[in-house]
Amino acid sequence: MTLTMIGVAFIVCGLAGELTGRLARYQSDGLFALAYVPYEIDNFRSGHSVWAVIDAALFAFFAYRWWTGGGGDDTKRRLRSLRTRFTPSRRTAPQAA
Known about the structure:
Helix content: over 70%
Largest sheet: none
Shape: elongated
Number of helices: 4
Distance between the termini: 77 Å
Mean pLDDT: 86
Radius of gyration: 21 Å
Order of helices and strands: HHHH
């Protein structure tokens, strides 16, 4: 029951922020994505596997909309900078003259 109420709180915050204009669409989509995680956990623990799969699909949908709407820009930037650390650089031995 507690996990369901946490999910409801995220949904209410997302709706209120979007309706008042305080949050952009991608930000409210991020809150909706966070709302479906406790729902999924609660349904999985209760044994409602069909609802858990539906909640996982809704989480993926809203997370995708958040990511492509601009919400993942900082995360994308961090991943890009992390990628440069692991990109191999070619090192050759010094040439003898």
